[in-house]
Amino acid sequence: GAVFALVPVSLLALCTRQTSAKTPLLSSAFNLSPLLRVFLHLGPPTSLRYDQLCVFSSRMQVGTDAYKMPLLKRGNRCNEEPCSPQEQQAKVDELRLAIGPLSGRALKFCSDDCLQRYLRARNWNVQKSKKMLLETLHWRASFKPEEIQWEDVAKEGETGKVYKADFVDKAGRTVLVLVPGNQNTSSHEGQIRHLVYLLENAIFNLPLDQEQMVWLIDFKGWSLTNAVPVRTAHETANILQNHYPERLASAILYNPPRIFEAFWKVVRHFLDSKTFQKVKFVYSKNLDSLKLLNDLFDSEKLDTAFGGQSPSPYNHAENGKRMQQDDVKKTAYWQLDDTTWDMARDAPVMEDGSDSQSDSEECLSKG
User: Fold this and answer.
1) What is the 3-state composition of the chain as percent helix, strand, coil, each rounded to the nearest 5?
2) Phi, psi of 94 (to 5 degrees)
3) pTM of the entire structure?
4) Which of 109, 167, 117, 124 is nearest to 312 (CA)?
5) What CA dihedral angle connects 155, 161, 166 and 167, to 10 degrees?
6) What are the average pLDDT values for consecutive 10-residue runs of the chain, which has 367 residues?
7) 3-state DSSP call for residue 76?
8) HSE-up of 123 (CA within 13 Å, CB side)?
């Protein structure tokens, strides 16, 4: 679900950027699908053979139906989603059996709630959910997102282009603030690691009764000149869609360019209604759209950048301290061999029963 919050940005980048001066990204006849040509009111590509032209014309004739129906069928879940908690648990058990024995971090990652998210993402199809989950486990074993620390990505966060807010929504959910106009680096690897670090941090800070986060995206200062590169946008979409399914509750696009909303009205026909409803367009001069923010947030806690009453601009030093504190807890949580985290006391506990809270505080004071 989270990937669709980036669709307008990514599409504009994909449709305007070029891989080089000589080779436009979408110059090839077959790089531009018939469906996209319908949207852009383009005719068939030039230099097609007669048989290729016939195929293209038939797809154009069918139009959106040939491409829309498979996606719309995914949104019709009423006939496939298990109705009762017992049926849902049976699906979870079936998926757990299908993926086989796990150990270490993979076992800790694959909680029943996790398995249920992957099942929902694949419309409760166990085999498709298994494939998706195993790909995530392989990615996590290679990328090691739980090992990324604040000092590894602090440079990327200097301008506050993406950060975890110091407030939550009315449901207590973690809020990630994205300010694309504050882009400050060109490192593909650095930007991806920074985003993954913040996703992991946001999830780690969710209350026990919540599993989704909220995104606030401020488009102040954004333009195509400081948009993320196509490669980074593509990998971001891949990671969000395939490795963090069902983690987005709402994405608020605040004062976006009007073209985004126009594009979104076209895209809506190719998404299930649940996904479409997660993305909201809010304009500071539109009282009706501002009501969306009032429904989600307490005004006195919401940053003034989003029309709230809290004058709390991004402070890199203070944010870093909070991230380092979270890193201590996260490390203890994932360090399965000799440490567990006591959520009731909010402190790591060693196998011998000793309390390492004082050690943690000393470590933070030195950091």
Assistant:
1) 55, 10, 35
2) -65, -40
3) 0.73
4) 167
5) -160
6) 45 37 36 39 45 48 41 43 88 96 93 96 95 97 96 96 95 94 91 96 95 94 76 85 92 86 70 75 90 92 91 92 96 69 45 46 39
7) coil
8) 14
